[in-house]
Each structure stands twice: as structure tokens, then as C-alpha cells.
Amino acid sequence: MDRFTELELFVHTAELGTLSKAAEKLDISNAAASRHLAALENRLKVRLVERNTRRLSLTNAGHDFYARCKNLLAELGEAEATVSAALVEPTGTLTITATISFSMLHLAPLVPEFQRLYPGIKVKIVGANRYYDIIDSEIDLAIRAREFEADSSITIRKLADTRRVLAASPKYLKRKGVPASVQDLANHDVLIYSLANHPNTMEFSKGTERETIKVQPALETNDGQIVRAAALAGAGILVQPKYIVYDDLVAGRLVSVLDDWDLPRLTINVAFQDRRYMPAKTRLFIDFLLDNFKRNDYERYWTS
Questions:
Q1: β strands within the chain, DSSP E
Q2: Per-residue pLDDT at 112
Q3: Mean pLDDT within 274-296
Q4: With the C-alpha atoms ordered 286, 289, 294, 297, is the resulting torsion angle positive or negative?
Q5: Does 208 lie in the same domain as 187?
Q6: Domain count of the chain?
Q7: Phi, psi of 11, rounded to the nearest 5 degrees
Q8: How confident is the model over 132-161, as pLDDT tens digits?
Q9: Are 97 and 226 in the same domain?
Q10: Which of 16, 98, 170, 243 is the most exposed place for a label (fewest CB within 10 A)?
Q11: The Cα angle at residue 100 between residues 277 and 291, in degrees rounded to 5
Q12: Mean pLDDT over residues 64-68, rounded?
């Protein structure tokens, strides 16, 4: 049995819900499809799919294996596209969407170097603090702070994890004092990004300790740069991903508070449409962005 076909069949089965539809997509018989799936489960010594008369469902092991296989097949597709496009001058407009903060800090500064390398590619950045539908909005790739996509036709590649931190200006801390415990936040002006998950509830952890605090924000806004500007002006304690305020922390413009406590971390991913042949402009920018994150070792700084 061909292992690549087994993986392709398993991914299609997970996405289409039936073995017969997966077999049709691969242009093989239902009997051959059954043999491929059985061979895969026998080799792994684990059941991946629960079978019933109407629709197949994945086991817990199947869900985990599906996520890994999907990314593996996507990377293989990118490798094939690299060979096919090696002699072709990449052209066209590359449309990228990300939050305004990420666009300002980690996309716009890369455009000059990327266009120097690939002058035939024009870059369009759609800065928005909401998630566009990649396919309907004709987006080539999106930067998301979530670990999965509801649409199975969207593939994700991890860029970095980042802590969410609490920080304030020295001016504010001199005026209001430094909180000694998470409960002390009730006596402070807290600056909230309203589009975060449950923005008024903060779930802290420190080792085995857990604390959940509800806050009434002094400022609530839908943009991270507004939160940052207010904190720099001394308005209060912000709650933001570290990638937004890292330079301010290093420069001393902002000071971390309660840094021994952790808030749920964010995973920053690049998301793009899963295609048989990825456009060269998209593949090149994904590789360029991943290389930039690796060279700058952002995850190490943002999770320390």
C-alpha cells in the first residue's frame, strides 16, 4: 500500500465524511479505499475512524492525526509548487490581511525587502481587527491569533506563540502604585482590547494556582494601538499580546506588572487556502515571513 495515498485518503475521508466520496476524489474503488484505510490503521495500531452506516467520524486519535496529516500534505504541495515555479518570474498582487497592530509592526516593515527580492509582486495589506473570509474576500493569506480554522479548506502554519502581558507606564505606576496581587487590579484602571475572547474576564495561572478576575475597564477599545497609546500616556494598565508592546517594555516606556502570573497565550498563525497548486506569490511570502520570524527568534522574546 502506498503511504502517501493512505494519508490523502484519510484526509479526504475526514473532510468529506464518507469513504466513498474520498475514493471518488482519488479516483479509486471503494474496495481499494477500504484497504488503504485499514492498512493505515493497522500500521499505526490505532483506530482513526468510527464507522457507521451513514457517515464516518474521527476518533480522538483521528482528529490529532488529521491535523498533522493536513499540514504535512500542504507542505508537500508547497514543495512541488516550488519546483514547478522555480524558473517562472513571480508576478501579481498579493493580498494579506492581519490586525492593524500586526500589519504595522510585522508586515509593513517587510514589504521593501520582499519587493526588492520579487519586484513583480505587488503587496496589498488589509489591516482589520476582524477575521475576513479568505475565499470570499479574495485574500491570499491571513495572519490569525487562533489555532484552527473552521473551514477545512484553509491551512495554517504557525508563526509564533506570544504571552499576553499586563503593563503600565512608569508615570501611572508612580501615581497609582504597583499591584502586588491579581486582586489588586480591582483598585486600578485597566485598559481592555474589546475584541479579545472574554475581554472583561482574566484567567491567571502560576504553577498549580489559578485565579479568575473580572474587571470593569477604565478604557475599552477595538484596536490594540489605541490601548497601547493610552497606556503610554499613563491612562492605566493594559492587557495586550507581548508582540505589540515588546519594544516599549525593552525601552522602559512600559513596565510589566504581575509578570509571575500567566494569562492564556496566543498562537499567531498564517492561514491560506489549501490549493493543489499554490500561487508562487503566496508561497514565496509565506516562506519569507516564516524565515523572518525564525531569524529574529520572536517566539523566545515574546514568551519569556
A1: 49-50, 57-58, 92-98, 121-127, 141-144, 154-162, 164-168, 190-193, 201-206, 209-214, 219-221, 237-241, 255-257, 266-273
A2: 95
A3: 86
A4: negative
A5: yes
A6: 3
A7: -65, -45
A8: 777 677 889 999 886 656 666 778 889 999
A9: no
A10: 170
A11: 45
A12: 87
| 185 Cβ neighbours under 8 A, 6+ residues apart | 166, 179, 202, 213, 215, 237, 258
List pLDDT tens digits, range 81-126. Answer: 666 654 467 888 999 999 999 999 999 999 999 999 999 999 999 9
277 falls within a domain: yes
Model pTM score: 0.67
Name the nearest CA neighbour of 286 among 301, 271, 267.
271
Whether the predicted pLDDT of 268 surpasses 90:
yes
What is the pLDDT at residue 128? Answer: 86
169/131 Cα distance (integer angstroms): 31
* Rounded-to-integer distance, Cα 42 and Cα 40, Å: 5
SS3 230: helix
Give the confidence band of 275 by pLDDT, cuts at 50, 70, 90: low
Do the Cβ atoms of 278 and 78 come closer than 8 Å? yes
Sheet containing 164-168: order of strands = 219-221, 190-193, 237-241, 164-168, 255-257
Residue 190 lies in a domain: yes
Neighbours of 170 (CB within 10 A): 12
DSSP string, 155-193: EEEEEEEE-EEEEE-HHHHHHH---SSGGGGGGS-EEEE
Q: Greater confidence, 279 or 98?
A: 98
Q: Which residue has the cell 512541488?
A: 80
Q: Point out the domain boundary residue: 83, 112, 146.
A: 83
CB-based contact 159:153 (threshold 8 Å) = no
Residue 234 and residue 173: Cα distance in Å, rounded?
8
14 three-class SS? helix
Assess whether 253 and 181 both reside in one domain. Answer: yes
Question: Which pairing describes strands 237-241 and 164-168: parallel, antiparallel, or unpaired?
Answer: antiparallel
Whether residue 249 is predicted with pLDDT greater than 90 in this model: the reply is yes
